[in-house]
């Protein structure tokens, strides 16, 4: 089956995008009701989140699935971090590096909450093969323009053409209706003990 052509401005993410992707993700998730409390030190949390998300982006870029939306004047308007069926957010050979990174960033008091949160999300993730949208974020100066959903639709067209279901976690209730309009159905709820509530979603290929 021929893969659908990507819309104008949308392209696969590359290693050269990793720093900007981490910057956009940090800005987007600092105020997030689930992710924000996991970085409790107000003086260090921006630097911490950039380091954390850069690690996760590097892990995702082991695969060719992630997409970015470029702006007309350069830079990125939105990023979508995808994993193909069978892939994990942190590869087996990176587990030790991940744990060390989290401990170094958060220390022994805050790190356990991050580990517990990851375990909670992992427990409810479906076992059926699926593509996993781990992160979706819009650059601060591009918010409100519909770029995030446009980028998500581009990814869904690709997986629909391949007959692959998709899965995501919505950590901000303000986004739930947007996902449901694209055909996502509620799957499970995660309530990390650090705070917040995440609704997970499953979507069969159209």
Give a structural overview.
α1 crosses α2. The longest helix has 30 residues, at 95-124. With 206 residues, the chain is α+β, with helices and mostly antiparallel strands. The protein has a 7-stranded mixed sheet, sandwiched between helices. The radius of gyration is 16 Å and the shape is globular. It has one domain (10-163): Aminopeptidase, CATH 3.40.630.30. The two termini are 15 Å apart. It has 5 helices and 7 strands; from the N terminus they run βααββαβαβαββ. It is 39% helix and 19% strand. 33% of the residues are buried. It has helices at residues 18-29, 45-60, 95-124, 147-162, 176-181; strands spanning 10-12, 67-70, 76-83, 131-138, 166-170, 185-190, 198-203.
Tell me the strand order in the biggest sheet. Answer: 1-2-3-4-5-7-6
By CATH reckoning, the class would read: Alpha Beta
Terminal CA distance:
15 Å
Low-confidence stretches: none
- Annotated CATH architecture: 3-Layer(aba) Sandwich
Q: How many helices?
A: 5
- CATH topology-level fold name: Aminopeptidase
Query: How many domain modules?
Result: 1
Largest beta-sheet details: 7 strands, mixed
Mean pLDDT: 95
Evaluate the radius of gyration: 16 Å
Order of helices and strands: EHHEEHEHEHEE
Q: Total strand count, please?
A: 7
Q: Please estimate the helix content.
A: 25-40%
Beta percentage is 15-25%
């Amino acid at each position: 089956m021929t893969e659908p052509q990507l819309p104008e401005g949308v392209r696969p993410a590359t290693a050269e995008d990793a720093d900007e992707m981490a910057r956009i993700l940090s800005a987007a998730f600092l105020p997030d009701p689930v992710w924000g409390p996991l970085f409790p030190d107000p003086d260090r949390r921006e630097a911490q989140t950039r380091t954390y998300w850069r690690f996760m982006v590097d892990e995702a870029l082991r695969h060719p699935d992630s997409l970015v939306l470029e702006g007309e004047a350069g830079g990125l308007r939105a990023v979508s971090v995808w994993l193909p069926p069978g892939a994990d957010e942190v590869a087996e050979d990176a587990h030790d590096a991940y744990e060390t990174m989290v401990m170094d960033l958060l220390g022994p008091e805050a790190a356990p909450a991050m580990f517990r949160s990851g375990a909670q999300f992992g427990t409810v993730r479906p076992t059926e093969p699926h593509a996993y949208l781990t992160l979706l974020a819009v650059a601060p100066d591009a918010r409100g323009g519909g770029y995030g959903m446009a980028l998500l639709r581009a990814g869904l067209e690709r997986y629909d053409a391949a007959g692959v279901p998709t899965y995501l976690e919505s950590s901000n209730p303000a986004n739930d209706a947007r996902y449901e309009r694209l055909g996502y159905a509620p799957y499970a709820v995660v309530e990390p003990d650090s705070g917040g509530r995440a609704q997970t979603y499953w979507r069969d290929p159209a």
